[in-house]
């Protein structure tokens, strides 16, 4: 890629490290050789772009963590043989952007949600670890390092329906792609939002960049009376060229799409929500969560739910890859008011064909009410008996105990930290919808025992490092501590993060 070449061309750029007495660390300082062009600084700081694909319903193949006490998100492991490894993502890379969203200063849970909501394809903007340290030292922690496309300058996903004049476009001459479209004035393609001089990237979710002309003609003929095109206008193509950014489908905005996802807001009534959630195979052959037996007159029907809808997200959190019990637990966690994003069979078939998540094409996303604001939690009626993956049992003297099983990717959904000058080990982060959140763990809870072993001794750090390999269930004995109490005994900037398990994405 062009960005990778730029980094290699700056090998002569010198890096120095100076000790900062206040921070107690070596700070990277950038220096130029006397005969070096200062414009090479941009090449050093230029990010890399990776378009990752899920294969056979698996993950993208990398683990993400947030460093303790710092803004930003770091790749901590890359799975062998995964899409992430083949594309060149490396351990230590900092994630700057997800699709066209700058995530440098977003909460960790938001970044994970964006990646999971991207569906089978995601575009990541990253900086290598040493490059990130240099850029931060030179430009400050508040600076944005992530390039993005300008407002309204994005590829378009356009659904074109053939009329008496056909699809309303021709193709530039050439035996092999890339191809550009020549529009008929007032034709179907122009009405569907295809811009003049657009480059044709995909047809029905399949890249045609390396097609021959005959292959492209055959693909369009097979589409019948309607076709979905991914295109990029000249302005988009030029901006992507300048940034070194690929013309990627997850960047696209929808134009004249034949269907869209629906957001349903349900408030539980005296007879419940009025639907049944079942796990079954979808149109793509993979297991999904489907909504059935929508009772007339109850909240589900009133909110617009239709029998056969596929559940895409709960409270903005994608449920892709979650099993039935985990999805039920996410719905339960919302209490008596639930926000669901669904697609009907037609929409499900469409977004499966174009290999994009329907969550990328929501017209607006409302912030769901937090579970704390919904009153007492109530269970979802389901004819599939739920399997309890989290059990909470009270322990005398104000303590409580919980047994946790890992969720998808092996994550328990919380992070542990310790402070040398503080009282011990505590919960520093809880992932929304995870096993820990469902068990009631909260930020600031002190860890008293892990799998029966007391914490607060010299072997704490070694024991924490072994938790990721411990056989489930994970048994924790905790004592609650308020947020104010947590802030009172953690000195700013101190502490060392020990993650029980990173998020596999």
If you had to describe this structure to a student in words, what would you say it looks like?
With 505 residues, the chain is α+β, with helices and mostly antiparallel strands. The chain has 14 helices and 30 strands. The strands form 8 sheets. Strands 9, 10, 11, 12, 13, 14 and 15 form a 7-stranded mixed β-sheet that branches. Strand 26 and strand 27 form a beta hairpin. The radius of gyration is 25 Å and the shape is globular.
Summary?
With 505 residues, the protein is an alpha+beta fold. It has 14 helices and 30 strands. A hairpin with a 4-residue loop joins β22 (390-394) and β23.
Which descriptors apply to this entry?
505 residues; 21% helix; 29% strand; disordered N terminus
> Can you give the mean pLDDT?
75
Q: How many DSSP helices?
A: 14
Rg, please?
25 Å
Helical residue percent?
A: 10-25%
Overall outline: globular
Structural class by secondary-structure content: alpha+beta
- Uncertain runs are 1-44, 364-397, 482-501
Beta-strand fraction estimate: 25-35%
What is the end-to-end distance? Answer: 23 Å
Number of strands: 30
């Amino acid at each position: 890629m062009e960005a990778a070449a730029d980094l290699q061309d700056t090998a002569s750029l010198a890096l120095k490290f100076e000790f900062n007495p206040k921070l107690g660390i070596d700070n990277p300082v950038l220096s130029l050789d006397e005969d070096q062009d200062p414009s090479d600084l941009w090449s050093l700081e230029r990010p890399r772009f990776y378009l990752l694909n899920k294969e056979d319903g698996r993950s993208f193949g990398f683990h993400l963590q947030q460093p303790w006490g710092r803004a930003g998100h770091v790749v901590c492991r890359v799975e062998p043989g995964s899409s992430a490894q083949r594309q060149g993502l490396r351990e230590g890379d900092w994630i700057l952007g997800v699709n066209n969203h700058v995530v440098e200063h977003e909460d960790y849970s938001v970044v994970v949600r964006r990646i999971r909501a991207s569906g089978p394809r995601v575009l990541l903007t990253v900086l290598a670890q040493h490059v990130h340290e240099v850029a931060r030292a030179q430009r400050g922690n508040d600076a944005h390092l992530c390039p993005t496309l300008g407002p309204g300058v994005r590829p378009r996903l356009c659904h074109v329906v053939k009329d008496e004049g056909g699809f309303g476009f021709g193709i530039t001459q050439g035996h092999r792609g890339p191809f550009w479209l020549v529009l008929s004035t007032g034709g179907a393609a122009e009405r569907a939002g295809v811009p003049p001089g657009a480059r044709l990237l995909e047809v029905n979710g399949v890249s045609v960049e390396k097609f021959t002309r005959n292959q492209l003609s055959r693909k369009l003929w097979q589409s019948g009376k309607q076709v979905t095109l991914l295109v990029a206008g000249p302005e988009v193509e030029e901006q992507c060229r300048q940034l070194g950014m690929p013309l990627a489908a997850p960047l696209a905005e929808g134009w004249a799409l034949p269907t869209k996802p629906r957001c349903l807001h349900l408030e539980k009534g005296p007879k419940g929500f009025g639907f049944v959630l079942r796990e079954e195979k979808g149109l793509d052959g993979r297991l999904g969560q489907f909504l059935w037996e929508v009772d007339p007159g109850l909240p589900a029907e009133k909110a617009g739910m239709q029998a056969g809808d596929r559940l895409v997200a709960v409270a903005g959190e994608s449920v892709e890859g979650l099993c039935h019990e985990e999805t039920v637990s996410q719905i339960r966690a919302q209490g008596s008011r639930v926000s669901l994003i669904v697609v009907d069979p037609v929409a499900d078939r469409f977004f499966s064909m174009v290999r994009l998540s329907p969550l990328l094409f929501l017209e607006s996303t409302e912030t769901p009410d937090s579970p704390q604001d919904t009153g007492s939690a109530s269970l979802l009626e389901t004819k599939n008996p739920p399997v309890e993956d989290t059990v909470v049992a009270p322990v005398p003297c104000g303590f409580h105990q919980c047994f946790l099983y890992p969720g998808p990717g092996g994550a328990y959904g919380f992070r542990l930290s310790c402070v040398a000058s503080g009282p011990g080990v505590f919960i520093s982060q809880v992932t929304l919808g995870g096993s820990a959140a469902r068990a009631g763990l909260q930020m600031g809870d002190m860890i008293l025992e892990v799998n029966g072993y007391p914490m607060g001794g010299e072997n704490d750090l070694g024991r924490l490092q072994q938790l990721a390999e411990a056989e489930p269930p994970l048994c924790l004995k905790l004592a609650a501590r308020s947020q104010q109490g947590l802030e009172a005994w953690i000195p700013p900037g101190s502490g060392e993060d020990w993650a029980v398990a990173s998020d596999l994405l």
